[in-house]
Design goal:
Distance between the termini: 36 Å
Shape: globular
Radius of gyration: 24 Å
Low-confidence stretches: 1-28, 196-202
Structural class: alpha+beta
Largest sheet: 5 strands, antiparallel
Length: 439
């Protein structure tokens, strides 16, 4: 009898070991994720991926866009993660920026310079390394129109100068890439002006930014984050504050339509206006636009003007309160290591970042949050699933698998109805592992 018990225990032990290898085990009491497939992400020899900030799928899943390298590059893949195309710095885009710039873009009293004008005091062409660093065009986000068009949210830099000085300016644009014809062209997007004057009778002028970027198929329009000029905030009236946009709608020709969301109250301060207002947006099955701001643990329905708070996520009120009192202008003027060190100390108060809001096939919301527990320097990735009314259905923590390397990003694939964990190691490079919740 004793021998039988020992054999049973051994079999159970072996079975458990094999079982754990087949699933993504999580902490006690949390749902378990089953691996459904593992893909190697092939990199370009000339454009290796140091980081990944976003991953976007075409409607059918035939194409995948990976946004990486600190929001400067986009790599296009097929469904097997075979590399098809890269989008990165091209010196010719400097001239493209000049051709798209309007008089409102160019600093008063300055003129623009083409790439051929990039010469130093000795008449030598400015090195390509300088151009890449200081006049870098950025492809920071991506969206697909069906399986035919890839849209790239772009920032194009150009040089402008007067008789004494040179400065770098930029314009917001969208690069349109035809997936069949393989041709690329840029469309310049309008400045987005607030309809209300502040107390100084000046307008808020906002530019389309990269933080949020979404194609709205039911409207054939694009959604952008729009960021304005912080120096006007301290003088603004309550009416202006209420109507200062954070998300704006544009048509595919770059014409501004209207805005759908205003700056949240937590960020209504001149120190926070252009800091950490990143947001992620999605469309639910009712064609309602939902999303979040990175530092606020809350999900907004921008169409209905409703919201619900995330559960079990620490807020960043300590950071937000401390940064409001931080004198950025003084730091810029003095530019001392001590001042920048103080800013770094403030940033340690950030404990969570809402990285993604996605809609599942069941019309529930997948929320992915990166957290930084006190006293650590390693991000943890929390995954939560909510109903549209804010009921938390389940949550888990993604833990690193030593076999695949350090987790860099967690995403969601609608076509696979799966979580995607992106990890990297020196031995295997980038690996994408797809998981299903275990029912």
């Amino acid at each position: 009898m004793m021998r039988f018990k020992i054999i049973v225990m051994l079999l159970l032990s072996i079975f458990t070991c094999l079982w754990v290898e087949d699933i993504y085990a999580t902490s006690s009491g949390q749902p378990i994720l089953d691996v459904i497939k593992i893909k190697s992400i092939k990199e370009s020899d000339s454009l290796p991926l140091s980081t990944i900030q976003n991953i976007v799928f075409s409607k059918s899943g035939k194409y995948i866009a990976v946004c990486g390298n600190s929001n400067t590059d986009v790599l296009l893949y097929d469904s097997t993660f075979t590399l098809l195309q890269t989008f990165t710095f091209n010196g010719d885009y400097i001239d493209t920026a000049v051709s798209l710039a309007t008089p409102n873009d160019i600093t008063y009293g300055y003129i623009t310079g083409l790439r051929k004008d990039l010469i130093n005091s000795e008449g030598e062409t400015i090195p390509i390394e300088y151009q890449k660093k200081n006049l870098q065009n950025k492809f920071s986000n991506a969206a697909f129109i069906e399986d035919s068009i890839l849209l790239l949210n772009s920032t194009l830099h150009y040089l402008e100068y007067d008789s004494l000085r040179k400065r770098i300016n930029y314009i917001p644009a969208v690069a349109t890439y035809n997936l069949q014809k393989k041709n690329l062209y840029f469309i310049r997007y309008e400045n987005y002006a607030n309809p209300f004057n502040d107390t100084n009778k000046q307008k808020f002028f906002c530019k389309a930014e990269s933080n949020s970027f979404l194609y709205l198929p039911y409207r054939k329009q694009l959604l952008f984050s729009v960021i304005g000029n912080p120096k006007f905030i301290q003088f603004s009236s309550p009416e202006t504050r209420l109507n200062t946009p954070s998300l704006g709608i544009f048509d595919l020709n770059g014409k501004k339509e209207h805005y759908i969301a205003s700056i949240p109250n937590e960020f209504w301060h001149k120190q926070l206006w252009t800091h950490n207002l990143s947001s992620h947006v999605a469309i639910n099955h009712n064609n309602e636009i939902i999303g979040s701001y990175e530092l606020i643990p809350r999900v907004y329905n921008f169409t209905k003007n409703t919201a619900f708070d995330l559960k079990n996520i620490t807020n960043n009120s300590r950071y937000i309160d401390s940064i409001k009192s931080f004198d950025f202008e003084n730091v810029r003027k003095q530019n001392t290591p001590e001042h920048w060190k103080k800013l770094g100390e403030f940033q340690k108060n950030i404990t969570s970042w809402v990285k993604r809001v996605d809609v599942t096939k069941q019309n529930t919301y997948i929320i992915i949050v990166a957290t930084l527990p006190s006293g650590t320097s390693i991000l943890r990735w929390q995954v939560q699933e909510y109903t549209s009314q804010g009921l938390l259905l389940r949550e888990t923590e993604v833990k690193e698998d030593p076999g695949y390397g350090k987790v860099q990003y967690v995403s969601y694939s609608y076509n696979d109805d799966a979580l995607i964990v992106l990890a990297v190691s020196d031995e295997k490079g980038w690996i994408a592992t797809f998981y299903h919740w275990r029912n």
